[in-house]
Structure formats: C-alpha cells, structure tokens
Amino acid sequence: VDIPLVRRVAIFGGTHGNELSGVFLVKHWQENGAEIQRTGMEVKPFLANPRAVKKCTRYIDCDLNRVFDPDNLGRTVMEDIPYEVRRAQEINHIFGPKGSDDAYDLIFDLHNTTSNMGGSLILENSRDDFAIQMFHYIKNALAPESCPVLLIEHPSLKYATTRSVAKHPVGKYEK
C-alpha cells in the first residue's frame, strides 16, 4: 500500500480536563520539545481544553470529544455558543480543516480511563492502513506487555472526536 508521508503530528492532552496523564505529558513536551521532534516531521504537543484542565473537570459546557461534527464546526460564533464548541472550531482551524488535504496527518489524543483495560489504542477506521501499521509497531515495541486495540468503527456513524480532525485519528487510553 502506498501511504503518503506523515509530516505533521499533534499530540493532544486535556481533551477532558480531569484526565491528567495527557495533560502532564503535553506540558512536559511543550517545555522539552526535543524529546518528541523527529527529522522531517513537525510534532506539536497541544492542550485541547485548557479551561477544563484549569478547573480539573471533564468539560466546561459540553464534552469536547463529541462536538467535531459538521453542525458544530459550522456554527456561527456567538456569545452564547458553548465553550467547547468554540474550542472545537479553533482546533479545527489550527489542525484541519477536518476532511481536507490540509489537515494534520496524525492526531494522537491521550486519555485516561477508570476501567481496568490497561493501556489501549483506539482505531476509528479499519481501512486506515497507516494507523494499523503504526498500532502493529506499537504493540510489538511494548511486548510482552498487552496493548489492546479497540475498533470503534460504525458504518453509518461519523465520529465527532477531537482526534477526528486528522487524516489518521488515534486515541490512547491509559488506566
């Protein structure tokens, strides 16, 4: 399979402000960017929902990880628009636009979970050859530790996740 080169990668933390692993990593990499930089590639650590992080709460008005649909991304900005919808529009402007050739190649969205599933990767499209090969590499690099891959693909649903702005959306959940 001929896969275009990945040149622009974003690492998101704080999509949910009370999930602190990604927040700590993003803040660390914002101060120590050399750890994640690679030749020929732009890697941008990004705090997705800074207001929720500041309050250490999941979200302010609504779940940021559910508002990246065309209706919300196309809403007119008004004073009463929910904070996370405005933030989604900003993220789409910076890393997208969603579905375009100009969108970032990869968004790696770091989350925490309270379920007992350990470290897990989330795949949104079973035909994303790049993500599948990357997951294979990650699983082999972590062996013998387990790292399940969860496919959340549905034939009639379009995902409105934060990471869905990228050409290759990847979620990472850690207990």
TrEMBL record:
Record's GO cellular component terms: cytosol
Keyword Metal-binding: yes
GO molecular function, one term: hydrolase activity, acting on ester bonds
Major localisation: cytoplasm
Keywords: Cytoplasm, Hydrolase, Metal-binding, Zinc
Subcellular location: Cytoplasm
Species: Centropus unirufus
Transmembrane segments: none
Database matches in InterPro entries: AspA/AstE_fam, AstE_AspA_cat
Protein name stated in the entry: ACY2 Aspartoacylase
Family: Belongs to the AspA/AstE family. Aspartoacylase subfamily.
Pfam families found in the cross-reference section: AstE_AspA_cat
Domain Succinylglutamate desuccinylase/Aspartoacylase catalytic as annotated: residue spans: 7-170
Cofactor requirement: Zn(2+)
Cytoplasm recorded as keyword: yes
